[in-house]
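Section 5: illustrative case.
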């Protein structure tokens, strides 16, 4: 097999701890993209018999840590000058927004866990509105446990589907296939997230309209 694959596999086998740390940090900031990419390339890396379980653990911890980061940021900014400025500028909208987040935020959080780019603003809003940390954390853990098998299944399903094509020519183009798969994954997530954000915006706008009529 070409050096394109043997070199990364060799490096990963000699620096497993670094691989898991890199996956953990990447998952904190880019979430599902890191998870999908890690599961996709895992079969060509020499991570040993415990490689996949450790990879899953690194992704799980990174995802929960990312949620904690955004929640803490939202909660911390609320009582700062920036937070006071926002609350004073739009007091009516702010109150309705917090009411909606308190009522539906955790449910939205669970629903958007698979959608790239949708989780940070919702988790930030949960922290900003001072939603229950215990409820937020338990939802983060449960949602992550729910979507990890889905991402793993998608990645390995694609790999299994491409097994008959695993010729030398295919391996020489493996990274192009990977980039194409990642692009399709991101495109699907983008449109799903866009649809969800539109739905949430409509819900919030409708709630404000009802309150104004009363």
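Designed sequence:
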């Amino acid at each position: 097999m070409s050096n394109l694959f043997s070199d990364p596999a060799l490096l990963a086998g000699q620096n497993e701890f670094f691989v898991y740390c890199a996956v953990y940090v990447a998952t904190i900031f880019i979430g599902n993209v890191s998870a999908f990419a890690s599961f996709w390339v895992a079969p060509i890396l020499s991570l040993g018999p415990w490689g996949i379980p450790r990879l899953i653990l690194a992704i799980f911890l990174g995802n929960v840590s990312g949620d904690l980061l955004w929640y803490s940021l939202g909660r911390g900014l609320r009582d700062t000058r920036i937070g006071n400025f926002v609350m004073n500028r739009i007091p009516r909208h702010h109150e309705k927004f917090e009411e909606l987040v308190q009522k539906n935020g955790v449910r939205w959080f669970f629903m958007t866990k698979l959608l790239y780019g949708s989780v940070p603003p919702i988790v930030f809003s949960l922290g900003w509105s001072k939603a229950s940390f215990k409820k937020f954390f338990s939802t983060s853990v449960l949602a992550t446990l729910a979507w990890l098998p889905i991402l793993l299944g998608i990645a390995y399903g694609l790999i299994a589907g491409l097994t008959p094509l695993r010729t030398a020519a295919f391996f020489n183009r493996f990274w192009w296939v990977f980039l194409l798969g990642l692009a399709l994954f991101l495109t699907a997530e983008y449109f799903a997230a866009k649809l969800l954000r539109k739905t949430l915006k409509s819900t919030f706008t409708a709630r404000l309209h009802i309150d104004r009529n009363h």
